[in-house]
Amino acid sequence: MAACSVNPFNGSDSEDENENEKEKSAGDGAPGCRSGALSPKTDSQPAALLSGSKTSPSLEAVPGVSEARLSVDAVAAQLLRDQYILTALELHTELLESGRELPRLRDYFSNPGNFEKQGGTPPAVKEQGGNTVAMKGYRAGSVSTLDSLDFARYSDDGHREADDRVAEREVPSQEKRSFKSSPEIQEPIRPLEKRALNFLVNEYLLKNNYKLSSITFSDENDDQDFELWDDVGLNIPKPPGLLHLYRNGGSRPTFPRSTADIGVGVEAKELLGVSITHETLQEVALLELQYQVDLLNSEKQSLAEQIKHLQRYIKARGTQGIVWRPNTTFSAFRNLSPAFHKALLSFCRTSIDSRLGSEVSHIASSEESLLLTLGRCLPHIVPNVLLAKREELIPLILSTACLHPEPKERDQLLHILFNLIKRPDDEQRQMILTGCVAFACHVGPTRVEAELLPQCWEQINHKYPERRLLVAESCGVLAPYLLDTIRSSLVLSMLQQMLAEDKSDPVREAVVRSLGIIMGYINDPDKYPQGFELMLLSLSDPSERVVCAAHQVLIPALAAWATKMGTLQSQLLTSLLARIEGLIRESDHGLDEHKLRTLLSALQSLTPPLFAMVLQSAPFTPQADPQDGAPPIEVTRFPRPASLLQDVAVIIGSREKLTVLLQLYDHQLEHEGTTGWASLLWVVNQLLPQLIGIVGRISITSTTCVHEFSRFFWRFCRTFGRIFTNTKVKPQFQEILRLSEENVDVTTGNGVLTKATVPIYATGVLTCYNQEEDRKLLVAFLEDVMMTLSLSHAPLDSLKASFVELGANPAYHELLLTVLWYGVVHTSAHVRCTAARMFEGVTETLVAQIVTGLFLLHCSSVRISTIPAFGTIMETVTQKELLERVKMQLASFLEDPQYQDQHSLHMEIIGTFGRVGPNAEPRFRDEFVLPHLYKLALANNLQAAKTKRLDIATQLFEAYSALSCCFISEELMVNHFLPGLRCLRNDMELLSPEHEVILTSMIKECEQKVESRSIQEPLGSVSLAASLVSEDAKTKFLSKMGQLTTSGAMLANVFQRKK
């Protein structure tokens, strides 16, 4: 008995030995041994099992590894051996819930054959309550519960189909009702089930002569051989046909064998009447051997877990890791030499000689080793990733660089980061910069200086502008995370070098923005002069986007720095004003308008910080409470800022605080003035007088400077408010201008009125507010200026500049009409003449409204002044009715006998014809301009005064030169244009021979055109317009012009109207 008893805890070292034991147990037919396998054991057996269990002596000396104890599988085997089925089921359920399933329990409870006995007819084994419990098929009472559990899905081999092959057939019909509600019945068909059914269906179709259907069915399942049942893959005999299965409902055939009910955990005496067959004992022996195999596998898993624990323990002690070595007991058990064993393992397809093989064979077992592995592998991974997806590596690179212990490896990783993408676009640069900020937050300023900044410095001169752009932006985003000494030295020097040397506009723009950020963090006052020079350098940049960045970021940041140091007024603004005055003083040799515009724009961007500083230093600021509930600020109270940094509310801190301060500011100005308010007194007593003095020295011909100063004063007055403008700004301008009639000097005029002060005051100060009283004040000022300049015979350039600036805005057209009408109906002829001169600078929209006023000017001197205005109408207006009135008015000038000897009037008309003729309406030119030019040329031949004749001839030559480029019909060419040229040639032949040569050439070319058109018109091959502008004519004309020896100014006038 001892020899044939099976101890499941004495597992061998190989699975082959277990197979031998299975065969041995199956061959021995000792009934007593097999019957003992089913007999219940006493309670003393588990203790014996515990004492005989295997332990691992190699683990006794290792800390953290507890002494080996009885395995769970051994307990399960003993429970099944002693037929404690319910206890084993409960253990199995708990192990399933904890994720530690035992193969022994799984196989046992998934096999329904463990709960039936196919012996002879057993007697009734137990009477319960007078009722005899009969067992059909030797089935346990809890079989429906066990069968409803899907234990087979946890099979190791993944083929649960074979284990379920008898589940349905062996369940009694009384218990089938419990299977119908089972979740397993509702599951989809399994692959092996599908193949079995396909085989049976195909067999049914062939037997019943559905051959075509069988062929189609075979084609649709070409992966299955329907001639061999073994191809299905089930290790069971072929079942009966489909018809037989249908008739029997899937139940197994009944055999005339007796059954007996047994209970779970019954006593041995209750089973005495049960006969045990030889087949049953053989199955039990095979099952016992299988349990031994499972037990060895369980121990193998347990040892693997202990090895992992040992590896973690050794790694914590500083060891690099445990290199796995094959088990030497294998070769010892097989009596193999170590050399043979090594040679045998060499056939395993592994490689640890390469770099990658070494990394794979030493996988990370801790956080530190993971970082080391990433540091080694990332440089090899990055080059093999697509460029468009490399930004996905940024978090991995930065995390590794942040935590890696080796400085050299960190430097390599950051170098990879900045070289990750050859030409990173805007989104990719944002991702890199975001990572740099996160890196700086984690590592601190010291490592940022030592690790990130060198990467920026290396790429400061990179050939790709995108990489230099990344460097410029990095300096800005890293500024808050650097030490102040580094910001004000290394980073500032880098940005200064890039601003001065880089040729890419986007790079310099990013440099300027980063400089603005740096200025917000520098605390060293010695660096302020350097910041001021960088501001001037950025403002003088040829790129508009760089200048815009300076206004948006750099100037507000520099102003905030100066405000913090208390030098906004004393240094920053004073320095700009001094530079502007220096430019004005040097204007005798030519004013640098671009530089002046640059400085004025900087002064304009400094107005919001100046006003914010005035508010913050006011006497009422300490008592200001944002909770007082002041009325909200009007939307138009301040000009629109160029950026948020120029918003006064942002500079102050909040809109609520600004609202309260503005209310107190207006109250202070209106009732108490500027007493004790040093910052505002500086604005009133130093800034404004200095600016007005600069304006008075500007030449009125510099339209750019006039426009820029007008914009500056407009924004300045809007920022400081209506009360400040009315009480502080306007009085200082009015004191300078002195517009009262008593101060008008008829001989020399008022010098200030001829400077840029008039248009700047009119368009920059008087237009900053647009209420009715403000418009009335502007109208009165312009009328006074017109009258004063007219009575003093002063130049009208300042008034014309005012009209041009105001005429650009349609909102002031009606206001200008009021001023012009005032001049037209004025009692003084000088004022009316001035009004006529003002018509030249107005737009087409105004021309149609003021032409009536021109017709009312009757005085001869005034009429001559209106001719250029009528010429403007001819050039710009297309209304036929208005053109007819202008034509009648000019015809009256030419045909009125009193103007026949008006030399100045004829000069003005001819000059106007030459100026507007090419741009006037063709009908007006053909019917009015050309005929009257011929008449004037013919009359000039009879002029006795040689000087007047030469003046008229020269004016006619310029007019005909301009009109020769226009399309002229053949009739007009013959009747008016050619006769006029011949008359003009007669004059030039006597007065200017060099002009006579050109005129002769022109006449000859025109005659040839007329002759050629007469010949070619019947053929229709060349149009009249094409012949007039032929290349040959232009070449000959220009060659003749090259022989002219007159002044350059006259040549410029000849071609001024060519199109």
Automatic annotation (TrEMBL):
One of its GO terms (cellular component) is trans-Golgi network. Residues 158-178 have a biased composition (Basic and acidic residues). Keywords: Coiled coil. The keyword Coiled coil applies. One of its GO terms (biological process) is intracellular cholesterol transport. It comes from the Eukaryota. Residues 286-313 form a coiled coil. This is RAB11 binding and LisH domain, coiled-coil and HEAT repeat containing. It comes from Scleropages formosus (Asian bonytongue).
